[in-house]
Amino acid sequence: MTSAPTTNIPVAIPAGQRSPEQPQPANTIAGSLSGIPGARTVANRLLHGTPGRMRLFGLLAVVAALVLGLVSVTALLASQNAVERAANNTSQVVLAQSLHVDLLRADAIATNAFLVGGLEPPASRQAYESAMASVARGIAQGAAAQPADAEALGLLSTQVQQYAALVEQARTNNRSGLPLGAQYLKQASAGLRSDAIPTVSAVVSANEQRAQAEFDRSNSSLQLAFGVLALIVLIAVAVWLARRTHRYVNVSLTAGIVLLLVGLVVASVTIGSISQATKQVSTGAYRQAVALADVRTYANDARANESLTLIARGSGQANQDAWTNASDQVEKILRDNRLGSLESQWTAYAKSHAAIRTLDDGGNWDKAVAEATKSSAGSASAQFTAFDTSVTQARDDASGSAVQQLRSLGGSAPWFALAIGLGTLVACWLVIRGIGKRIEEYR
After folding, report:
1. Could you tell me if residue 49 is inside a domain?
2. Please, what is the Cα angle at 11 between 6 and 17, to 5 degrees?
């Protein structure tokens, strides 16, 4: 019996069904993908009900923990940076004041040497050149250390060069016995006080303001107020979670909050200590350094006017008035700062100055000049030099102490900041762990 030949007979497929071998239409694939939950659906599921609110508050707690740690770290570093800038600005104040003093000291030496007539004593010439070299070095160092002063110091350099040129013209004429030298010297001293001194005074004032601003910025405790707010948020989340779950002990969350609180306290104590120490420097060594620099400035101004009064030969009342005003300032500062030993030295020089004025006013100009220019023990020059040396030493000691104390402050701040930063990360993990446990228990 032979079998019937095989034929391909189409098989009817029910409507809505497809053979596995046939490709599915695009609209069928899209329909199957539409069943996958979207991002919005996932968010709704995660934030639905009490577990969802726990997740929200947990996120808020982590953000608050990060804010608290960041505030503590930045406040510490800001305080340390302020102290470092205060030290740098204090150094710049001392440098600028030294420029002020050296200019007046150079003028005092030049005017006193001019009274000798002819070729000035080698010691006086050497002292003048040393003072002017110190001015040149100070201008270069000041411009490099503080770019904000560069323009003013550039102008000062030009003014100093003009002054030095006039002094050299006065010196040349004086060596030749020409009276024109006195006019050049008067012009040099007048130009120094009308141009260069106001410029360097402005530099001194600007740096004193910068230093004082940094003293004030060293207390960055105001920033910690944001940390306190963040801590309140963390505590509020912990209280809400305890009431909601009726579980009042959450070791991880509590440990995280305590860790952050310790960091905040450490930052507050460190910043407070830095601020207090900085205030002591500001009102102590720094203030005394500034006062002593002012004393030296006024003293050298007085010394220069003493010589200018004699150079004027009877028409130097304005210079004598300037001497009196400068002397009054010296005495006031020394008295206000209770610097008795220096005050007695200045009094001795002032008595010698009064003797010189008595001779000049009495018509003994030559003898007055001799008294003003001699350098033997007990002379006006010797007494002034002793006073100037003592003031300089006291100023250097006070300024060095101020800078050293400032540089020693805040040294531990970076280490505390690093520890608080790491502690903050641990605290965030503890917060997440503590809230995560409550979410799992709620399920």
Report:
1. no
2. 150
